């Protein structure tokens, strides 16, 4: 799915350590930007550990309220930053029309991210599948 929406490289984390794979892909330098979009503390740590000097890790996913993020001090390379993003700093009146234009132009591939559709009655199954990691995104339709 990542390749279909524009990823140039992917890592199979069931086979490879993601931090080591990123380091290998970048000549050991790390990445300028890493995003955690799931809401998982392990992934936050991996994003931080993948950074290059002056890199930024952005936590987009919503972590549980009692979550604690721990990482080794040396994981923070010189001049790195860890930040959060809620709705991407969205300026609704400006950004939502722009996102709609991108979608209409085929530059924002939202349909490709939907892995399951259902009815509102399927909400419990949709949440179960999301928590189990079986879907990228589910869409529930109102009839």
Could you provide a short overview of the structure?
With 143 residues, the chain is an alpha/beta fold. It has helices at 18-25, 41-49, 92-104, 123-132, and strands at residues 31-36, 51-59, 81-84, 116-119, 138-141.
Structure overview:
The protein is of the alpha/beta class and 143 residues long. It has two domains: 18-89, NAD(P)-binding Rossmann-like Domain (Rossmann fold, 3-Layer(aba) Sandwich); 92-141, no CATH class. It has helices at 18-25, 41-49, 92-104, 123-132, and strands at 31-36, 51-59, 81-84, 116-119, 138-141. The strands form two sheets. The protein has a three-stranded parallel beta sheet, covered by helices on one side. The protein is globular, with a radius of gyration of 17 Å. The two termini are 28 Å apart.
Q: Please state the structural category.
A: alpha/beta
Strand content: 15-25%
Helix share, percent: 25-40%
User: What do the pLDDT scores average to?
Assistant: 91
CATH class of the largest domain: Alpha Beta
Shape: globular
How many β strands by DSSP? Answer: 5
Which strand order spans the largest sheet, edge to edge or round the barrel? Answer: 1-2-3
List the defining traits of the structure above.
143 residues, alpha/beta, Rossmann fold, three-stranded parallel beta sheet, 4 helices
Sequence-ordered SSE layout with sheet pairings:
Layout: H1 18-25, E1 31-36, H2 41-49, E2 51-59, E3 81-84, H3 92-104, E4 116-119, H4 123-132, E5 138-141
Parallel strand pairs: 1-2, 2-3, 4-5
């Amino acid at each position: 799915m990542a390749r279909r929406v524009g990823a140039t490289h992917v890592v199979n984390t069931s086979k490879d350590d993601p931090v080591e794979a990123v380091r290998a892909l970048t000549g050991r330098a790390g990445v300028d930007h890493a995003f955690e979009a799931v809401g998982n503390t392990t992934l936050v740590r991996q994003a931080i550990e993948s950074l290059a000097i002056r890199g930024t890790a952005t936590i987009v996913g919503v972590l549980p309220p009692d979550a604690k993020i721990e990482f080794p001090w040396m994981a923070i390379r010189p001049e790195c930053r860890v930040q959060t993003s809620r709705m991407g700093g969205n300026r609704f009146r400006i950004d939502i029309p722009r996102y709609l234009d991108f979608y209409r132009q085929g530059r924002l591939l939202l349909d490709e991210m939907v892995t399951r559709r259902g009815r509102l009655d399927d909400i419990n199954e949709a949440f179960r599948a999301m928590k189990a990691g079986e879907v990228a995104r589910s869409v529930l339709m109102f009839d």
